[in-house]
Structure formats: C-alpha cells, structure tokens
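Handout, section B. The chain below has 167 residues.
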Amino acid sequence: MNTEAEPLLYREKQRFSKWLLLLVFLPAIISGIVVFRYTETGDMPFSLIGLGVALLAGVFLSLTALESSVSSVGFSVRFVPFYRKPTLISFAEIDTAEVITYKPLWEYGGWGLKKGKNGLAFSVSGKNGILITFKEPRKMFWGKHKTLLIGTQKPEEWRKVLAEIPQ
C-alpha cells in the first residue's frame, strides 16, 4: 500500500501540548537562573547538568510530531522523529475503526508511543483517538497487537471521514 500515490481523505499533524513543553522547559529556566547566578562566583554548579538535560528534552519534545492520515486504501501513522517512514495499515487488515474517548494515563501509561493493557497507542495529548481493531494480531514495534490507538485532536473530523469509509 502506498498512500503517497493515493489521494488523502484526511490528514492530521499533532504536537505535544504546550503545558507539557512548559513543564519540561520550567526546570531549564530555573536551572538557567541558578547557573547564571553562580557564574559570577566562579563555581560550576550541578544545575548546569540539569539545564542541559531539560533543554535537550524540551527541544526533543518540541520537534516530536504525530502524523496520521487515511486514504482510499488505508491508514498511515508516523511518529516523528522515531519513525522516518509511516506505518501503513490497509483496510483489508482492519476489523473496525472508531473514534473513542479514552484515559491515557490509566489505559496506556500516558502519551507518546505506548504499549498498554489495551494494545499499542500513538498519542501526543488529549483523550480522543481512533481505535483500530485488526482482524488478526498485527506485528508492530513491541510484538503482535490486536488494537492500535491513534490519538487525535479533531475527533469530529475523523468521525466524518470514518463514516464515509465502507467497513
């Protein structure tokens, strides 16, 4: 299946929420203040390591994106920068696909590329997703999975698109 040759029915690109980025960058800001305060004394404070780690984590998270799309032949999902090529899922492999509301922390242990008690999930924020149930367990990343959840910030748009796709 090559979704690049097929016209897209819908595409969504998401990034981690701003509050999460702020939560990561806040220690960097605090560490930066401490580092610059102690630079005058000539001491090299331990918070310099914290500053570097927090800045790297913040930059990494700000560059991370979840790209999902659907064409006439199936779904495509890619978690940038972890996977350069999209994971392609043909409609022939899918039993059902529906928009759901879920509990990210409880069901999958949070956001990101997660393996939870309900299967595999790609999500960056929120509590809405497209739950894809496969006809047969599909090998993806950490073993075989019966379901894949793709997070979405636009559940109503996905509902409209899924309603147009014969299942």
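Note. The first helix runs from residue 18 to 39. Compare this with the example in section A.
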